[in-house]
Amino acid sequence: MGGRLCCHTMTACAVLGVYERVHAQVGGCFVPEGPQHGELGNCPQALSSGSSCLPGCEEGYVLDGPVSCDAGQLRMPSCVPSGCNVSEALEFLDVEMGDCPEILESGATCELQCPDEQELSDNVTCYLGNLSDFVCIPPGGWPCPAGHQVSTDSPATCVPCPLSTYKSGQGPWPCARCPPGSQTNETGRTSAEACMCHDTYYELRDASNKLLSCLPCPNNSGVVGFHRHRHEDCRCWQGFVREPASEDERLQYCRPAEPCNVSDLLSNLTGPEAYKLKMGSCETTANSSLLPDGLTCSLACNAGFGAQLGSDIFRAVDLTLACEDGTLVRMPPEGYLWLGTSGPSPVLSHDVLFVWVVTTDSCCCRRDLLAHRRSMSCDVSQHSTACAFALSFVMVLPSALALDIR
């Protein structure tokens, strides 16, 4: 029987895995699909001999003929790129055909003719039935409005002036740049008044407020806010100090602020002993015994202890250190610093323990006191009045309290 089975009725025949659809009449054609860039449209897949049909094409393509079947031979047309009807496109425009044909093929280019010395923005091109945009530009350029200029991508399009530029009137000219060191805060600005100097410059403007130039502030300084019209408006940035220091003198430059050396102070006041202060937040802030300018830190007592002055043991002592350009503007007051157990009442009792350290050179007084504590004697004549007060105060403490300070 061979390898092909022919059917005289419309059906699907299968031999050796091959499927084929045939027409009831011998000599008909099978139409599997539409043309490239097209579809079957109103065409049946089984087309009888001598008949034809019209498939469809994608947008931008046109059919160059029908689908036809002749004694089993199928003719499939093509969908070809659509040309452009130039004369139809110019029907209502004051533009001449120039060297363009009436129908411009897809992918082809030609040049139109503008009237009255006007210049064509670009040659026109046809692509899948669509002509490219074009415009006739008046002599001198396209008159874009204030705050706009002609686009570099399309001579017929006006775009807003970029940042740091402005344009005050209508015309073909481009946007003007702001003076060096200045910029605008948004696009499309229409006046030089919109130009503002960067924060490291102060402004020089004319009587109409037009920015003429930006003058630099001294090193490490700048202006803040809207008052930026004079050299006097320049201020040192945080962490820098003006030179000269007087505000009445013209600012020359801003130098880095100096840290405070707190090494001696910390070695005197702090330590592992129970009666000494602890580093507190100064442990991390006063790195390498230097407290940076503008920063503060606080020393601390052991848990359950507070600090009082020997001259006023009932008033808490501020243990904060604050630095301004190499000078400690805040620190524990000089004198005899007592560490005592804190409580709700300032009244002395046998439950209150006072131990003292000093911020000056009177540690020797404390050693003398401890050396003679059992006899309750100390040569206070060798020490200051404050030290004598401290010793006399300890001497009148109850014996049980005196034993606690060992």
Q: Could you characterize what this model shows?
A:
The chain is 10% helix and 30% strand. By secondary structure, it is mainly beta. A hairpin with a 2-residue loop joins strand 36 (320-324) and strand 37 (327-330). The longest helix is centred in the last third of the chain and has 11 residues, at 385-395. It is elongated, with a radius of gyration of 49 Å.
Observed structural traits:
406 residues, Complement Module, domain 1, 4-stranded antiparallel beta sheet
Task: Profile the largest sheet.
Answer: 4 strands, antiparallel
Mean pLDDT equals 76
Low-confidence stretches: 1-25, 341-406
> Class by helix and strand content?
mainly beta
- Give the radius of gyration: 49 Å
Count the E strands: 39
The spatial strand order of the largest sheet comes to 35-34-38-39
From the spread of the alpha carbons, the general shape counts as: elongated
Total of DSSP H or I helical runs spanning 4+ residues: 6
Percent helix, as a range, is 10-25%
- Beta-strand portion reads 25-35%
N- and C-termini, Cα separation: 125 Å
